[in-house]
Every structure is written in structure tokens, then in C-alpha cells.
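Colleagues,

For the teaching module next term, I've prepared a clean inverse folding example: a structure given as C-alpha cells, and then the sequence designed for it. I'd like students to try predicting residues themselves before seeing the answer, so please don't circulate the second half yet.
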């Protein structure tokens, strides 16, 4: 399978449009501000930065049809998502669609920033998830014992339900974020959070991903 495409980096993200839906239980463990948006990489996206943009959607924006991630050369997508510290991952949240462009198989790889389609196809994933053909939010639990020390996550969408391209509208994460001392910090409500928490974790994990890698 040939993947003739190049990668790009998401250049900026704002902190101002970060609303909360107080009645949604998922926000109790929703991870957002602790994602290193600028270092997200997506292979085989049809337009630059689409992968980063759908991850950057806030919870109130999760049902918005745009931006959308669409694959390019074929149905496969490979996304690298780094975090700004250590995460105990609980689940991956995905919104796709009811048509055949919905992703079917998702393989997760823990703390690997060196994968391309060839290596991901050959490597045993940390966990394999089967997705549904639905436009509802899918909350996909992971094995917490396997993802208790998560610095980054690579998501390999291996196939879909028959379309030539795969389309994804939102990706989110639920879990427990840890500060530098490996103790839980409040990540939910900005009004209640200790500003020092954000100061402590700011810039952590901001390692350069500009190095040349095959396919990345």
C-alpha cells in the first residue's frame, strides 16, 4: 500500500475558546488543555493540520461538522498525539459518521513517536479497538494497566467500512493527568483549578518533532 504524501505540523492554537458544558459527566475526566496541539502529526491527511484541528475542538464543539479529518491516498490514517506530561488514559472518544467512511479498526500505540504506516502495520499494538458505524460519540475504554504512564499516543486507523477515504470529526481523551510530581491535578474547571498547576505543566514535553523520519 503506497502512501505518497508529506506531513505537516499544527502551528498555533488559542486558549480563549475553551467553553464548558457543566452538565456533561465526561468533563470530569476530559483531557484537553494538556494536549500538545502544536506537536500533533497526522499522516495521509488530505489537508494540512486537519488531524490537529479535530483534536483541538473543545467539548462544546464536538458535534460541529467542521473542521473534519479526511484521509488522502487511501482509507488509512496515522496520528501522533503527545501530552504535556504524564496521563493515566481511561478512554478514547471519537465521532465519525453512519456512512462507510467511518473508521472500523483503531490500533493504539503507547509512547511511540517513530511510527509510520509500515512499522505500525508490523508492530503489535498496545491495544486494538473495534469502532462502530455511527455519528454518536464513541467512548472507547482502554486497558488502564497498559496506559497508566502515557506521554504520547499514536492512533492507527487501519480501515473503514468500505469507502475509499476515512472521515473523522472529533477525537478526545479521558483520563487522569499527572503533574511533575506524579500527583493528580485538577484539570476540569478553570475557575476551580490552581493556576500553579498550569504553570508547572506548561511547556513540559515540548520536544521538537522536526527531525526527519520516514513518512513522518
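(Answer key — instructors only)
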Amino acid at each position: 500500500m503506497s502512501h505518497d504524501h508529506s506531513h505537516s505540523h499544527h502551528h498555533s492554537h488559542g486558549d480563549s475558546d475553551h467553553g464548558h458544558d457543566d452538565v456533561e459527566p465526561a468533563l470530569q475526566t476530559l483531557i484537553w488543555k494538556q494536549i500538545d496541539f502544536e506537536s500533533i502529526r497526522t499522516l495521509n491527511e488530505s489537508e494540512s493540520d486537519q488531524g490537529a484541528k479535530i483534536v483541538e475542538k473543545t467539548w462544546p464543539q464536538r458535534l460541529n461538522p467542521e473542521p473534519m479529518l479526511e484521509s488522502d491516498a487511501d482509507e488509512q490514517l496515522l496520528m501522533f498525539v503527545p501530552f504535556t506530561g504524564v496521563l493515566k488514559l481511561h478512554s478514547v472518544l471519537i465521532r465519525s459518521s453512519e456512512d462507510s467512511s467511518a473508521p472500523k479498526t483503531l490500533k493504539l500505540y503507547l509512547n511511540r513517536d517513530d511510527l509510520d504506516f509500515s512499522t505500525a502495520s508490523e508492530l503489535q499494538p498496545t491495544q486494538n479497538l473495534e469502532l462502530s458505524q455511527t455519528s454518536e460519540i464513541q467512548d472507547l475504554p482502554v486497558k488502564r494497566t497498559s496506559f497508566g504512564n502515557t506521554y504520547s499516543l499514536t492512533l492507527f486507523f487501519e480501515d473503514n467500512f468500505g469507502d475509499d477515504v476515512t472521515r473523522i470529526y472529533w477525537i478526545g481523551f479521558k483520563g487522569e493527568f499527572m503533574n511533575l510530581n506524579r500527583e493528580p491535578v485538577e484539570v476540569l474547571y478553570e475557575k476551580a483549578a490552581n493556576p500553579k498547576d498550569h504553570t508547572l505543566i506548561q511547556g513540559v514535553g515540548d520536544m521538537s518533532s522536526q527531525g526527519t523520519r520516514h513518512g513522518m
